[in-house]
Amino acid sequence: MILRMPRPWKHPKTGIYWFRKEVPAALREKVGKRELKWTLATKNRAAALTKYPGALEQAEQVLSAALNRGVCVGNGPKCSHRCAST
Fold first, then answer.
1. 10-27 CB burial, b ≥16 within 10 A, e <16
2. Residue 61 is inside which H or E element, if any?
């Protein structure tokens, strides 16, 4: 079995790279989404690969906050809730 490493997703029409991560089934109701995704704001693959670990860390914080506090935490970097950043 081959394991795929997480990597940025390139939008087929715009060519801009995005961060995408599936929300675990147990947290979907709390987060309110099946997937966390947001733009990495670049068309450059090398820049997207550089930004990806930070986006992954932020997504893990969102999921952790939902698990620990049982609250909706919004959408990653554009989250209006303070719970994801603490």
1. eeeeeebbbbebebeeeb
2. helix 45-69
pLDDT in tens, 7-53: 999 999 999 999 999 999 988 888 889 999 999 999 999 999 999 99
The continuous run of DSSP H or E covering 80 comes out as: none
Burial group, residue 80, by CB count within 10 angstroms (0-12, 13-18, 19+) = exposed
Kindly compute the dihedral angle of the four CA atoms of residues 75, 76, 77, 82, in this order, to the nearest 10 degrees.
90
Neighbour tally for 44: CB within 10 Å: 13
